[in-house]
């Protein structure tokens, strides 16, 4: 029983001496996973002894056999079972660490599950929605916080309350004039006349008063909403106001010319033009309305001339030859003379388009106007429509067509004659001619009432009275159309003896002298005073060298052909009829049109800078004795009133009068006495100015 003894020896394997592990820790291979033909018994029993095994053990005991070898149980090892080991995947080989990656990386936290992430996102979104909806619901229907219109706070107000606040605060600004600055000139534009007004409805419509969006809510909480008031614009009215400013500012480019001062040609240098950018001005005024803090500066464009002074100077010799002799106009046995002064008054030398040459230009229409009647048969000559005053109202006197001087042919002939290639005796060509003012046009001019009138006492005796009567015939009945400029010198023409003018006292170089056509300054003063109080624009006026007592302070006007002129422009939309007449030692000028102002007044300053006169001795036949008068300075401002309020005023005009010396003429007592008697009316006080009132 060697085998039995051997088997009875203590096991050499340490696992054999170990107590069997509890049944629950015994290894029990899965029979399903064993290869075919392998019995699980080779691994020992893992459960309670089988019935036949127990019987065999009892039989061996009775037969005296040694007990069976105890079951060998492996050393209990903690770890996965064989089944789990067989199901486990072989471990993946370790990856090589990338360059720059630390070998021992900390253990990454385990990511939350997808459901947790979704839950957290939903909670965050719900919180944001509630954070928006709650304040949005509270602020809905009211202007959001931080909202201002032109600096006026309207936050928290309803639309109607905001409209009331804006109307109250902005109404004063909306009616204020808009200050305009163009260079050194300043203007004021009335919003009412310019068609500008505050649009309350459009402004309130832009206020954030509905249910606010997220961006609006963030801006209301963290920022500020600044809105500009909306305006309503009448484009036609605004452009009309800009055009009025442009009429005052614009200055066309002047290429220069050679003109005459008397009979002496002088060069008028070229001058750059200035033009207001009207489109830009319209936009600038719009932007400034309701937002103005400083005057609106408008932009002007400069247009340079294309001719030089040297080119103009080359024409001076030819200009002197042009007025060296008169030009005689002939129509059959009728003759008329264009004196050198008349030629000079309507002749100028202008540069051509290239700017390299200068050519003469003669205004034949104006040049022949004063002598045309002498060349035409009164029965066939054209006649302009005019008016005569009947029963204190103007009545139309129809004009008619006829045959008149062809002014285009005359202009070409004069240019040829002054250039030396033609004769200075020019046969005029007659052509069918229409009146300068037709009947239909005259009827539409709005000449219906007297708008001003003034009378001046003129010098006595035959000289001044004869000259004034002659000039009145040429001025009376003239109609000045809208936009037309009236020149008294051009209307009267050269006052020479051939045309019926005589010698009379006149102011020359600060003294009274006797000359042909003297005394016409009384007519000029009466006309200037009437134009002044009619509110028409005065273009050119010069006061006398010294003040005459019969003339109003600062409103007199000197006249001396061709240098000293009185010119005024009809800046109304109505025609102006000149009525002039002389009687009883006075000359009267009345203007008829449509009244634009209730009153036009003259604010006359007190005399200042008074300078005493001195006594001098004169001799010769032209000496006129005078009593002398002090010199002084006076300023006159024209004020326009309508509907009881002042609507505008002109810039002040200053007149400086030199002292009139006391002149003692050497000669016979009779001559001195006659001249002193002739001047006596001149020293009479001036009549009180007559200012017309409505209905007069």
TrEMBL record:
Compositional bias of type Pro residues: which residue ranges?
A: 11-22
UniProt signal peptide:
none
Which InterPro entries does this UniProt record tie to the protein?
Glycopeptide_resist_protein (IPR052913), Vancomycin_resist_VanW (IPR007391), YoaR-like_PG-bd (IPR022029)
Entry keywords, A to Z: Membrane, Transmembrane, Transmembrane helix
Map out region (Disordered) in residue numbers.
Answer: 1-68, 83-113, 667-696
Spell out the Basic and acidic residues composition-biased ranges: 84-110
For this entry, the protein name equals Vancomycin resistance protein YoaR
Write down the species.
Thermopolyspora flexuosa
